[in-house]
Structure formats: structure tokens, C-alpha cells
Amino acid sequence: MNAVVFSFRLLGTYNLVRVSALTRRLLIPCLAMVPWPFLVLRSQDAFQGEPHLPSPLFHYADAEQSFPQWIQNVTVPNSPARADNTPSDNPITDAGATLGRVLFYDRRLSRNGAVSCGSCHQQSHGFSDTKRFSSGLYGDPTRRHAMGLTDARYYGDGRFFWDERARSLEQQTLEPLQDPTEMDMTLPELVDRLSRTSFYPPLFKAAFGTPEVSADRISRALSQFVRALVSLTSKFDSCLDSSGSAHFEKTLSTQEFMGLRLFTNVPGYTRISVGCGRCHTTFAQIGNERRNNGLDELTLNGGKFKTPSLRNVAVRGPYMHDGRFATLMDVVNFYDHGVCDNPSLDPMLRDPVTGQVRRLNLTQEQKEALVAFLNTLTDPKFLTDPRFSDPFVTERN
What we know:
Low-confidence stretches: 1-23, 34-46
Largest sheet: 3 strands, antiparallel
CATH topology of the largest domain: Cytochrome Bc1 Complex, Chain D, domain 2
Helix content: 25-40%
Shape: globular
Distance between the termini: 36 Å
CATH superfamily of the largest domain: Cytochrome c-like domain
Number of strands: 3
CATH architecture of the largest domain: Orthogonal Bundle
Mean pLDDT: 90
Number of helices: 16
Order of helices and strands: EEHEHHHHHHHHHHHHHHH
Radius of gyration: 23 Å
Strand order of the largest sheet: 2-1-3
Structural class: mainly alpha
């Protein structure tokens, strides 16, 4: 039986008591009726204050952005635009993404007010977590490492989670809210809780036309915010003009440029690529399907996991779905000589002639060059952009 934490105030201090999941919903209504002056159930207002939002609102809608042609025009070579999973019935709007930002960082979305989406997906770490497994609302570890959310909108089939069990981002956003380890809410309870605040009905009205709070609107707003998390100001981006024409050698260091050439083929230069760019495609370094990358010899369900974008990868370790690798050099060493053979191994990791698992046999200089190139995908402006930051931070401080 899972243990959970019950929050109450005793002598002016909030305390956490671990009780069984089976008894939690019986205890809370009973204790709420106890007239003791020193026992007060923690109310939603005690969880968190109101968000601090700018006036006018930040801009999130595509039409308000200065997107280069290479990221929005499907005809430009290496554009990720064809993989944009934004549905026609949920385009990004300023009001919708603003609501999504508030929801993303609001601890009211967890039963005891302990965590928010932003607790596990931290902006400064590319919307991932430095922990191998994040901590849920009761302190228990999650089952998998928190996937980075940078450029999440660019994934063609639109599926989410490491195992791609969610058919869309709109479906994915509701699952952690209801997961007993992560946030442990029911959707009816969440709708009721948010409806009782002073600020959510106006935010929902601005986003959707009426103040009604619903699970569908919660998922749509969260999805708009996550799809707005597009990185465009890394050092790699500075190598590209709006049309996608590149001047890599002029902008990157000698080491970084060698790393790029090892990562993917660069037109006009001798081919030395080891094939990273075949799985991490386009100028956004995005994946296009689940793959078995040879982490283990024995695998469940084919051992296939989603390939996220590599944008901001240098700041979001540890790596893989289970966070087994602490550093990028660990990852490079794995692909160099550690890939395990198994029946479901992705064909790209096999020698096309012999069928054996590929061994890259990189030199230390080449490994360091690859890591240096991956660091050029870090976007400092994105990692500190106030549009993506916690609107409750002033309240918490």
C-alpha cells in the first residue's frame, strides 16, 4: 500500500504526517470538522499566492515571434517545421500560453501543494531535472528521468512520454496530475480547486472566452505553454541566417566545428560523421521515432524510447530515460563502445555490411569535440527568459 503525506498545522507550523493511501480520503473530511483551534487543514490559499503577470502579457503566439524562416518554413532544408505537432484546434495564443505558464508552476495542481510541473521540469536545466529521478509530492521517486521540454513541439507523430504512451501533448499533460507518485489529484477535484481561486476564472476567460475551468482547458493551456518553449538563440543558431544558410566554420571554434562534422555531414567538407545526425535530425536536432539504442541486452517491450531534441542537452543531465549516465562524455563513451546487442537494436547502430553492433573507435580528441559541439546547443537566453519563468517566484521569496 502506498504511503502518502497528510498536511496539517499544529501550533502555527505546517507538519507532514505519512498515512496510507487507503485512509487519506477518509481522514481529511473527518479532520476538517474537528473544532480544535490548533488543528487547521491546509487550505488552497496556503499552498501558494497569486501569480505575478506583466501588463501587457508576454507574447507567445507564433505570429508575435520573430521566427527565422528555417524553423517555420517547411520548404527550407533542415527545417523542423514538418515535425510541428501543434494541432489546428489548439494554436498557441498569448492568453492561452500565459494561463499554461501559471498552471505549469502552480503547486495547487498537486494534492498537498508540494510540487508543480516546474518542480521536475526546471527552466535552468532545459526543463528537465538534475536528479536521476524526480521527487513526487510525497517525496517518492518518479519512475523515469524527467524529459527535457525544449522544442517539444517538434516531434512529428506528436506522441509523448519516454514510451510514447500518450497520443498527444494534450493527453500527456493530464497524466502526471493524476499519477499517485507525481501529483496525486483527480481531475474533478482539480477543477473545483482552481475554480475557487480569485484569479483562475479571469485567466480561463481570457484564454477561452468564458471563465469555466475544465480538464480539457487545463490540458490545452499547458500544451500551449510547452509548445512555446522554442530555443533559437544558442551559439549554433548564431551560425544560421534566417533562410537557413550556414556559416559554421566562421562562428564555431575549431573544436566545436570538428564536433559538428562528427555529429553530421557538413556540405563542402570531407565526410567524417559517425551518424549522430541520422537520429537527431534538422537544425533543431530532433528525433522522429522511438528507438532501441542498445542500453541493455535484455529489454522489455522492445526497449524503445522517444528521442527528444538535443537543444540545451548540456544543462539537463543526467541522461537517458533512466538517468544512468551522469555526463555527456559518459553518453559519448557509451555510443563509442558500450552499445549492447539485442534483437530490437535500431539498425542505425549496426554495421550495414556485417550486421554487428557499430563501434565508433573515437579518439579522446574526437570525443571532446563532440561534447564541445553539443555545448553549442545551449541557449542561455532561453534558460532565463522571463516568458518561461515561474510567475509565483516573488511570492515564494
